[in-house]
Amino acid sequence: MTDLERALETDLVLSERQVWRHYGATLEDCERNGYAVRSVLVAPTVHRKATRPVQFVSLEPQTLEDYELRHLAAVAEVRHVLRADPRNWRVVQHAASTSPDAIWRHGLETWAIEFDAGAYSRATLLEKARSFRARYDDHIWAVASVSRAITVARYTTVQPVNIVAYL
Q: pTM for this one?
């Protein structure tokens, strides 16, 4: 199994930019290897109205909504920023509102991973943060904008991780 295949198995989707930056593969390489490629129009956060075409790569054709592809790519970028081994990372899809986006086995600890695209209300943000503190050894809250990082830092004890180059 190649590193890219292991990543796609773990992360479910990656953007074209991620595939190139982290694995040195082009879309042509991906198509030649039988991976599914889907082009969608997405904005990097919920509040940004300007969209642009982004190619997403997966092992199988995806029927997910555009925003779900963006979200999964963002969670994958968090894994790359943390240098987390894919074997210690599990994406959590379509779970309860207090569930994290991913779970990372970090040494002997289990960490909750959350990507916030800017849509959570203050109440939801606080509820998720409380839930993560109660159920996990630690948690990481990733954001895609400086303004969202300020909001998260204002209402929680978490220092957010700002990721911007995932699409």
A: 0.90
